[in-house]
# Entry
Amino acid sequence: MASVPPSARVVVIGAGIVGNSLVHHLARLGWRDIVQIDKGPLPNPGGSTGHASNFIFPVDHSRELADLTLDSMRQYREMGVFTESGGYEIARTPERMEELRRRMSSARAWGIEAELVSPDHVVVKVPFLDKNKILGAFWTPSVGVVDSLRAGTLMREAAMALDALTVVPTVEVTGLDVEHGRIRRVRTSGGDIEADTVVIACGVWSPRIAAMAGAAIPLTPAVHQMISVGPVPQLAEREGEISFPIIRDMDTFCYERQHGADMEVGSYAHRAILHDPSEIPSIEQAKLSPTEMPFTSDDFDPQLEQALELMPDALGADGAEIRYAINGLLSLTPDGAPILGETPEVKGLWSAAAVWIKEGPGVGRAVAEWMTHGHSEIDVHHSDIARFHPHQRTRAHVRSRTSEAFNKTYGIVHPGEQWAGDRGKRLAPMHAAEAEAGAVFFETAGWERPFWYASNEALLGEYGDAVMPREHEWDARWWSPIINAEHLAMRERAGIVDLSAFAMFDVVGPGACDAVQSTVVAQADVAEGRVIYTPVLDAKGGFRSDLTVMRLAHDRYRVVTGGAHGMADLKWFTDRAGDRAQVVDLTSAYTTIGLWGPRARDVLGALTDDDVSDSGFGFLTCRGVEIDSTSVLASRISYVGELGWELYVPMEQGARLWRLLHEAGRPHGAVPVGIGVYGTTGRLEKGYRAYGSELDAERTIVEAGMARPKVKAADFVGRDAYLAQRTAAPQAVLCTLTVDDHVSASGVKRYMLGGEPILTRDGATLTDGHGHHPYVTSAGSAPSLGRHVLLAYLPPDQATVGNGLAVSYMEELYPVTVGSVDATALFDPANERVR
Amino acid sequence: MTSVLVCVKRVPDVSGEVLLTADAQAVDARYVGFTVSAHESCAVELAVRVAAGDGATVLTLGPAEAVEQLRSALGVGCTAATLVEADTAGYGPADVAREIAAVVADHEAAGRRHDLILLGNDAADTGDFQVGIRLAHELGRPVVNGVKAVEVADGVVTARGDGPDGGVETFRVPLPAVVTVLEGGVEPRYPTITGRMKAKKVAVETVAPHRAPDGPGRVRLTLPPAQPSSVEVLGEGPAAAPAVVDLLHSLGVSR
# Structure
């Protein structure tokens, strides 16, 4: 029996691609006394890495995943374990050809060489493919395969060469000891290891290990079926592992990947087959390895036919037999992103899970940097384990969402696409009234949020073409012109917005002011009743968040932030609260209703005797008001650029306040307004930035055009970096652009949805000072301007008002003009309306 | 012209630690899935070779899911399949032999002779070693056990197997006959994609058992005590290569 060292600076559990990458990068960053353990033997302990198909296509619509993949490819190349083969994503249908054009947008935006090609291009390189079955293909020459086991060995060896790492295989974790909320010890079959930093990099077993410490890693083991057919004579003639490009047969959700004389056919087309981490066999019980489960041939039979149809001469060749077939286990998460970072439940216990071969080394580097510096070079906030709300950590939620997502692995997924399963989980108190008004609900963090209301359809007649109708189905999917009608009604009269999905938490105690002051950029030591809007930075000066904070008392601050990122914000503040302040989550205690528009004061004034005049209730202040017998906290701020308030009431009184506001609003023409206005049209007309779109850890206050004249004297996270950024020339400038002409070559007006590359008028690539290419971070209608508006970070020399550029949408160029090169709004640039 | 019937049994695909079901009546397949024994894979391979153009029929007694094993045999060249649908647990070797004999009789009555019947030497899960002999007895046919190679010519089956002293035993018996097959004489083929697709289209004959089981039954399965395993390090680096090659030769997995 192997035995483990009695203590370690850090224990990394797992020796798959993730654990191996992590120990390498930790050692490189100066960590010593690293102990890495695995239940299985080396170099293949039996997890998903051991049976991975090991090929990498770099283009992904997600920038975060694309960047992690590109970084991983660079590392695999440096280790000499990368073989470039090129790869085609082929289209059998016109809908897929359109999706491939959209993939070209992502390729251009992330700077990855790619090309749309004809079937003839494909058969020159893959002569055994039936070109009559396909319409075209997306060609990525940098696609390749890696030896992930070899890479793991090399990375462990590199860490051992630095005398930083002890590796102990064949020991099983039997327990994780937590004391006072902090990890203290890893119990194993080979003895106990004292450590106050532990990383779970256990792939499909991660939930089981995390549960030993009372933490959740919400992933599920799921089956990905794969067979290997050979010997295929066309392949056997060639030397080496791979000499033909990999084919992704996107419409059948399959791939064909040469492996020596064999062709591997893998599928994401079968029914979702989910396992429980406790149902995975041990190494002794497994037939092959624990993650190579018995093949269920009935599930794969339809794919056999489709694969044979595509490559009849190769896969149907004499003697080509199905020599290997598995239900391989891989990790799926409810939102498709990896699960990285320190668990919110246990200090010092980290997760590096739900990571595929293509992201492994990149994730290893990012997590190691995060553990070392508190931030990583590549922004990984979509993967932050702290993002999950409690219901998203449940087994039922994970199973529902992963079942639904599995067949979308190669699917055509609209950026606005909504989940069908596990809906209706978090209902606002006014939900029934909203449903009655024909609300079309979209989900954020489990909340059902009205995006627009069918009851406002009558407004379409009122505003006519000003609602900017969209004629192309893709542009109009998950959208309605009613959004723009609601927008115009709000700007003209007033709108009432359900903002129940806000996350909300109080920072309380004698140290509350210090805690907030040292966490946020804006001056937080303000008078009671002041409202501040502020960025939150990491130590390198990148955005962790942007949010509003109300000072309610000398020892109480209330933080209000978006639902999607709210739980990560909660952890960020909790981690920095210190001993003299507490952070208390109030998300489910209060609902928020927004009231905005030129008639907002009339509406609120009709409901309260309190002074709501500008002199009595100034902008960026908050205080309690009485509305009927309800005590309401009102805050005079706006994310849509109109006069008005956010009104906070206890959840159980939300329905009543909603009704009162509508009754008082009716004579003034107030209408319910959905998140389509709040999150997109109202915001974009005002040039307001959104975390996750314009703002993330790779962006700075200066580049986002959000720098204030002064920086507070008090210290805060990121201050030094921010001061340095203010004196340096920006490498990119966030600009607002308008589309000058929407008509496509086929005469249809097209409307961009976000993610599209910005090019010169004649289609040449632009590059900013970071070496990045500009792309649309947010896109949407600006109905009050009658324009379609785009936000994008441009190279500084392109950031001049009036500059003519182009946006590429579905591989056609549309002229755009720079309208603003800072936070100046295109609509009401002097911000007179909020006064 | 030889018409061949090959009999298989759906069994857990165990290669490591064996688990029993809670009632100890069967081997638990939850981690490993199902297959047929290696003996039966070889029997199927021999059936397909012997039958050549005449077609081989594959038969099993088992639950509806056992169609999966019939399709696997169809995928490598069998041309017809019969499922005697029954809960295997209640059927001892005498019952199984009787049910196979009944199918053979029914087929013969319908004009389908089965000159040669091949079975595995023994089932991988229950290890009864009886069905072949009992079947031959039921049918009044000669039987040869533990055979690795089978050829048919002029109405005579030539069956070869390992003798007790390391030599080869050869038996010649007239058809119709029963032969039980031991693994190792032939290499079973894998299915091709086209084979698998063809197998999908074959209609499987499904019949009910002729009689409720009444032969000797099984009280329970028990596992032998775990064998202590030991690890021998063959060497490190390139110097270990000759020892690895020797080991592969001795295991018979390289030539």
